[in-house]
Amino acid sequence: MDLEEYRRLSHDTWERMAAGWERGLQWLWNVTRPVGEGMVAMLDPQPGQTILELAAGTGETGFAAAARIGDDGKLISTDFAAEMVGAARRRAETLGLGNVEFRQMDAERVDLGDDSVDGVLCRFGYMLMADPGAALAETRRVLRDGGRLSLSVWAGPDRNPWAAIGHAAMAAHGHVPPPEPGAPGIFAMGDPERIKSLLSGAGFSAPRMEDVAVEWTFEDFDAYWNFLREYAGSIALVIERLDEDQRAALRTTMAGHIEPFRKSGGYALPGVAINAVTE
After folding, report:
1. Domains within the chain, CATH numbers bracketed
2. 131-166, pLDDT tens digit by residue?
3. Is 121 helix (H, G, I), strand (E, B) or coil?
């Protein structure tokens, strides 16, 4: 698949995922709160600053920063999917935030001037982009001197069975091809050396990195299956296209893979994100 075709499919996927993410935003934030709050702490935004969030989704990480920059500051919350931008706007209204500007924006083509923001946040975004190097170069362009980038990506599949189970089962049934090295995807930046290389190529200095543990809990297998169908991006769309027999076979395989993580009648699946900040 060429990059333009990937961009089109990725955009369509996340437009379609937005409704589910909005319905489950509080649960998703509760699980990933250590990641988002850790990113904001590493960025250390100050009152009056302008902070840009890329690939913001429903916006919670940026909203944590908005509380720090105060009424004199501004958060620019962006996503390339218009439906995600709408979901984030509605969430901000619920939270009563008045210092947020919402814009539909592609992180590979940031529609802002040079040296225009004091800090940038991007949670689980760069790894899914067609050209993360281009997106990081754009990030560097819009950052003022001394500004920081705080990002998070998922570590490798061995440290994230909550996601790896679905990918492995899909591949075993031939519904998705094995991932190509360097191709966009949930584990595309799981190697710290790749993070360093991409940041260096975009003009950033070596980042400070830390692992952040999370735990995804599900009351039963159906809850995990529904999680994949509601939130799991391209996997959700593949499941949607399967016929009844194919879905049943896939469920059986996934149920076997998840069994080692049974806990208290349900399941507890560990995960690890890598938070990184440029100095």
Report:
1. 3-156+181-215+272-277 (3.40.50.150)
2. 999 999 999 999 999 999 999 999 999 999 999 999
3. strand
